[in-house]
Design goal:
Layout: H1 2-77, H2 82-107, H3 113-129, H4 131-146, E1 154-157, E2 160-167, E3 171-175, E4 181-185, E5 195-196, E6 200-209, H5 215-227, E7 239-245, E8 250-259, H6 263-280
Antiparallel strand pairs: 1-2, 1-5, 2-3, 3-4, 6-8, 7-8
């Protein structure tokens, strides 16, 4: 009897276990069939919309690229600043792609309203977190629109001097004759006093001549020397004249324009040319002199 009861119990448990396994497998099969049916219905109902949205997106990107190139060529033909031209072309491209993306999402039944709200909330948070960066971008946009200077100009701002190499939305890159790059955040440019001498820099020199020399002749000699010096600006005539009267010489002031990219080279060449021209013309450059007069000589020791 004991063995029969054990066999019945094992048979009953086996039947129960197989029944449970069969139910679980059948449930999983039903879930898989439901997922397959859902996917099939989705592709049957939305396949053309998805293909249409994909085609619209590809065509939109191609059109945006083509329109951007046309806008850039138009700006270059109208001789618009190169930085402003690239900015307008890039903005046009992004605007077209954004509109095409909205149309594509609408094709597959996705509402863009929640995305717009989310982007607005994220923009507010990002704006508060990146006030300094946004200030630079705002100032860069102002520079591009107002154009207080363009690429190739020589500017002096915040005690920094250099030739404008690149103008970006966040910063402006200057370079000097030594090839040193100077990066200035745009927020430190807008609102400040900007000195713009375009592609050239003013060089100022002072040289002394003896009082017994002819100043008119000296001025003419210096002008001729500057005119014969390579890279001294010919469009802006040098300015030479008497600047001051020193203790031992007449001070001749010299002002001329030199290209910023070769400022020191041109200045040194001009100084050498002026020195040789004055020496050849027989115009003396005197040494500093001091005259000492001794008063009350009769009171000095040893005097009779």
């Amino acid at each position: 009897m004991g063995n029969e009861n054990l066999c019945v119990s094992v048979w009953f448990d086996g039947k129960l276990t197989q029944s449970m396994i069969g139910g679980i497998v059948e449930q999983e099969i039903q879930q898989a069939q439901a997922i397959y049916q859902l996917i099939t219905e989705f592709f049957v109902n939305y396949s053309f919309q998805i293909i249409g949205a994909f085609i619209v997106m590809i065509l939109g990107v191609l059109v945006a690229r083509k329109v951007s190139d046309l806008v850039l060529k138009f700006c270059e033909r109208k001789k618009v600043d190169i930085t402003l031209s690239h900015f307008i072309a890039g903005t046009t491209k992004l605007a077209i792609i954004a509109m095409v993306a909205i149309v594509s999402l609408g094709k597959i039944g996705i509402s863009v309203t929640p995305f717009v709200a989310a982007i607005g909330a994220l923009s507010l948070g990002a704006g508060l977190a990146m006030q300094g960066l946004l200030a630079n971008y705002g100032a860069g946009f102002n520079i591009i629109i107002a154009r207080p200077f363009v690429v190739g100009d020589t500017i002096r701002v915040q005690g920094v001097n250099g030739q404008v190499k690149e103008v970006h939305l966040a910063y402006t890159l200057l370079t000097d004759e030594d090839g040193v790059g100077i990066t200035i955040p745009n927020k430190h440019i807008i609102g400040e006093i900007i000195h713009n001498s375009h592609a050239e820099t003013l060089a100022e020199e002072v040289i002394g001549i003896a009082y017994n020399s002819d100043p008119d002749k000296s001025i003419e000699v210096i002008k001729e020397a500057l005119e014969s010096t390579d890279k001294v600006s010919k469009e802006r005539a040098p300015l030479v004249g008497i600047e001051d009267f020193g203790d031992s010489c007449i001070k001749i002031g010299i002002r001329f324009w030199a290209p910023t990219a070769h400022y020191f080279e041109t200045r040194y060449r001009a100084n050498v040319a002026i020195f040789h021209a004055l020496k050849t013309a027989g115009i003396a450059i005197p040494f500093p002199q001091r005259e000492i007069r001794i008063l009350n000589e009769e009171r000095l020791p040893g005097k009779a």
